[in-house]
Amino acid sequence: MSALAEILFGGLFQGSLYAMMAVGLALVWTTIGVFNFSHGVFMMLGAYIAWQLVELGLPAMIAFPIAVVVMAGVGWILQASVVRPLIGRPNIVLVVVITTLAAGSLIENGALTIWGPRSKQIPALIAGNTTIGGVGVSLHQIAIIVITPLILAALWMFLNRTRLGLALRAVAQNEDASHLVGLNVTALYGLAFAIAASLAGLAGIFMGGYRFMSPVMGSDPLLKALIVVVFGGISSISGPIFAAYLIGFFEAACSYYFGLYWTPALLFGVLILTLMVRPEGIFASRSRGLA
Amino acid sequence: MTDTTSPTTLGHAEAATPIAPGRTPWKLEAIGFVLGFTLLALLPLIFGDTYARHILIMAFIYAIVASNWDLSLGYGGVFNFGHLALFGIGVYAYSLLTKLAGFDPWTALFASGVIATLAAILVTIPILRLKGIYIILVTFGFAQLVMQVIISQSAITGGTQGLVRIPGLYLFDHNMVRDGKFAYFYIALALLVASTLFLRVFVRSRAGASIVALRDNEEYAISRGVSIVRQRMLTLAASAFFTGIAGAFYAAYQRNASIDVFGMSLATIILSMVLLGGTSTIYGAIIASFVLTIFAEWMADFGAWRPMITAVLIIGVMLAYPSGLVGMIKASWGAVAGRLKRPA
Fold first, then answer.
1. Is residue B273 domain-resident?
2. Domain count of chain A?
């Protein structure tokens, strides 16, 4: 009983964080067709901005939304500076990998210079602990498990029920036609990046609430988010969400039965196998035009 | 990427290799090759201190890794993001073979190249059906898998602690430690010469032409009888051998091995060398390796600001010259040459 509860809880919790990260990556990929390798750095920066605001004396419930909004701005600026000028170039996928990596390195080293290497922690969403099914858990983790599906549902509503969200999906499906019907494609590209960055920032705030933060805290979640989007199929938003929870459970089960050390290796093994059998991901119906 | 301007009308129709338009005649290239590397061989005479030689050795290692990456990334169009894992496999293969299995260092150096080649063939299998971004993800996953296995097998590999006191190379009775790095300098240079020669001969051969054909028009190349499975394996395997040897040499030179070689920072630097130099040139990656390595040293005084300045510069060059330094040189040369030709 306790084993099952532990795996279930661990899976839900990790899955929530992975989903928050992966959705942003998938959103940028579907709309712009590039991979944002500074996504992990967004997560780190969101956490540090929140920490800084709390340190300045703001209550957490005000500081966190401000940090998320600031991250949206950061995402927009990054898109405008290192992605937009390259759109239309023949080898854009490759060049954007290097420019976002470089931008990520710039932000990471900037954070190191400003805030220093010392580990920091931001206040939990809800302080305290409880026991469910024989497993001790913190209320902060439960809050994350509850809040994440709400945010993802809100994102889904936005993409499917609002004009702006539909416009975003239109650009993802056919850029030229979107131009023709008068959509501001450039602004929508910026919006995709802004949403992705603020989701990553929020994931960073969640993570900074239960684990110590460091300027390199985003690299591992970025990696996991990459696995998630590959696994779930990169061409949709719902695929990565399902995959995130699936991988969360897989990881929780693996580390319970095989130990923490073998989990990443098993995970990558499963990933490579999945791609050999179903290159478009297990939850994808069809793949976007890839080159 | 490939020049499509003014096809050079060469008389010999019996030439075995397809003549690409605008290709430099091989004699001209051979002269440039010999001149360039003679110049590099003479550098220790100019820079007398040991530290300068150390920087050049590092630049040579990076140049080998970057130029081999250019083969798969630039010529092959295969977004192999596991290239640094092949380098890391070379590092660990050499370390384990010499330290645990007691191999002779030179045998281990060669064996590391072979092991890296086998690893490359292994990683090619899952990406045979894939395209573009998916290849990035799988090869990236492969690199992480290798790193995780090395970390988890800490009893053999030292895990995150790494390995120390790895046997170095030797040359007869020559003292490798107290010669001011002269021997290592020339070994590194010899490896770079061998690697560059191999790469240039390869990309100028029929096999090289077929790889480029697959990159530029896959369907047409396949319909003309080019096997994508065989050629893709060949590309990856060919790019892995000297990468593995460079890794082994790196381990022998540094006398230690750590999982840092799998890290994002090294991958970013080497990738920026490939892209900064300009893909599908081989020489571009080598030039960029020198430029970046020496530039990084030159900025040593800036301390924490150094990675940030490098990042800004990489972004700047990529935005201004997407075809890299060689593209920059070609563009300016084209402008000069065009002006010279016009009156005639």
1. no
2. 1
The amino acid at residue A244 is A
Query: Domain range holding B153?
Result: 48-261
Give contacts of B 133-172 with A, CB under 8 A: 133-134, 136-138, 140-142, 144-145, 148-149, 151-152
Q: Tens digits of per-residue pLDDT, A208-235?
A: 888 888 888 888 888 888 888 877 776 6
- Interface touch B79/A113, C-beta < 8 Å: no
Residue B57 maps to a domain: yes
Contact criterion met (CB below 8 Å) for A34 and A291: no
Please indicate, yes or no, if residue B186 is contained in any of the structural domains.
Answer: yes
Token pair of B229 as six digits: 């499975």
What ipTM goes with this model?
0.81
Question: Does B322 contact A at CB distance below 8 Å?
Answer: yes
Picking from B128, B139, B144, B275 by the largest number of A CB atoms within 10 A of its own CB, the best residue to mutate is B144
Tally of domains within chain B: 1
Q: Which residues make Cβ contacts (< 8 Å) with residue B93, sequence separation at least 6?
A: B108, B111, B112, B115, B116, B244, B247, B248
Q: What is the DSSP string of A263-291?
A: HHHHHHHHHHHHHHH-TT-TT-SS-----
Chain B, window 237-296: residues with a beta carbon less than 8 angstroms from a chain A beta carbon: 264-265, 268, 271-272, 275, 279
Work out the angle between the directed axes of helices B105-127 and A262-277 (0-180°, nearest 10).
Answer: 50
